[in-house]
Design a protein that fits this description.
By secondary structure, the chain is of the alpha+beta class. It has two domains: 132 residues, Copper amine oxidase-like, N-terminal domain (Copper Amine Oxidase, Chain A, domain 1, 2-Layer Sandwich); 232 residues, Zn-dependent exopeptidases (Aminopeptidase, 3-Layer(aba) Sandwich). It contains ten helices and 16 strands. Strands 1-4-5-6-7-8 form a six-stranded antiparallel β-sheet, sandwiched between helices. A six-stranded mixed β-sheet has the order 12-11-13-16-14-15, with helices on both faces. Helix 4 crosses helix 10 and helix 7 packs across helix 10. The termini are close together.
């Protein structure tokens, strides 16, 4: 992912003045920064300007995600997400339409000039004197609901240990239950995708999280490998698989789709594929943060190897509309780690470590008001 950092320019004052005079919606006094005119291009009879240079001129943070061809621009706690080829954008999570679609040409992202006139104002914010008192309520950004997904279940056994014949579906459920207790003690509402040994199709797991409008989704698994020497803790977030082991695991975990009767998740009627991908892009940044906090906590709390954060296109991560991670708590195919999973004390400590990582994420999420620090990276 290419990241850009930009600094404020004089043109920002023009938009701020429009807000203070009560004309922010149409921004009639907006004047395009003169330096941008030399970079303007015409597509289909409409004047466009390069997004990177536009952000540079007005002091906005800008990031381009080549994975889904989506750009995110941010100012303070406001955010706009655009996607190449689409005429729809997300402004602080709300869908809006552009005059013409975003264009990706010769390696650069172009937006209609009208985008600058009509859609940058929401990122500047309202002057404190005009902001309603309710908008300043404490903990506007927090983690209230977490969905814990105990992997596999029912006819889908998952991995099986070689020596003690421990089954992944059982260990994942036990670990998920312990994690639920710890998070609930911390004041977080927890929803389980399954609370007993039943089979829940992958689309159904994602749907549970989406319908609950959860803040986080944590899928709990125990790993397996043909190599009995492979061991350690891993935490995955959504992106292309980065190594052969991740690709193999991705195929294994997604294989349970075949036992689900070919069911596909029902996308929201007001959120089509384009908007789904935009929302997904926003969540991927926070997913990486969450995975990192969990891995760090496990490394500091348990005598188990930390294989770190990894990426793969797991179904349950792709189709959840919130920051999501998939925990692989160890390897049942490793005789030492399988023996550790027989210990209730080890499971307690593992649950505590994962919970600490989630709570540390919550702490930082609240402190930074929704991880606005991502925009400066």
């Amino acid at each position: 992912m290419k990241k850009f950092r930009y600094y404020a320019a004089a043109g920002l004052l023009a938009i701020a003045a429009a807000n203070l005079t009560g004309c922010a919606t149409q921004a009639p006094y907006f004047r395009l920064e003169p330096s941008l005119t030399k970079d303007m291009a015409n597509f289909g009879g409409v004047e466009y300007v390069p997004l990177a240079k536009l952000c540079d001129a007005y002091g906005f943070e800008c990031k381009w995600d080549s994975f889904v061809k989506t750009a995110t621009i941010q100012k303070a706690s406001g955010r706009i997400v655009l996607r190449a080829g689409s005429d729809r954008i997300l402004v602080n999570g709300e869908e809006k339409r552009l005059e013409k679609p975003v264009v990706f040409n010769a390696g650069a992202v172009f937006v209609p000039v009208s985008f600058a006139k009509n859609n940058l104002a929401p990122l500047i914010g309202v002057a404190p004197a005009e902001r309603p008192a309710e908008a300043a309520a404490p903990k506007l950004y927090t983690i209230r609901t977490v969905v814990i997904d105990a992997g596999h279940g029912g006819k889908d056994v998952g991995a099986t240990g070689k020596r003690y014949r421990l089954r992944e579906k059982d260990m994942a459920l036990e670990l998920a239950r312990k994690l639920r207790v710890l998070l609930e003690r911390a004041g977080i509402r927890v929803i389980m995708t399954r609370e007993r040994d039943i089979f829940v199709p992958l689309p159904g797991r994602a749907e549970i999280a989406n319908k609950a409008a959860a803040d986080l989704f944590v899928s709990v698994h125990i790993n397996a490998s043909r190599s009995r020497g492979l061991r350690g803790f891993e935490c995955y977030y959504l992106s292309n698989a980065t190594d052969d082991n991740a690709r193999a695991l991705e195929a294994l975990e997604n294989a349970s789709l075949k036992t689900g009767g070919g069911a596909e998740i029902e996308h929201s009627a007001r959120l089509d594929k384009t908007l789904w991908d935009m929302a997904l892009t926003e969540g991927r940044l926070e997913s990486g943060e969450l995975a990192s906090y969990i891995c760090d906590s496990v490394e500091n709390s348990l005598a188990i190897g930390n294989r770190g954060t990894k990426s793969a296109r797991f179904y349950v991560l792709k189709y959840t509309r919130m920051p999501s991670v998939l925990v692989e708590a160890g390897y049942l195919t490793n005789r030492y780690e399988e023996k550790m999973f027989k210990s209730a004390q080890f499971l307690d400590r593992m649950a505590e470590a994962v919970a600490k990582g989630i709570l540390r994420y919550r702490e930082e999420y609240e402190r930074t008001e929704g991880f606005t620090k991502n925009a400066s990276r």
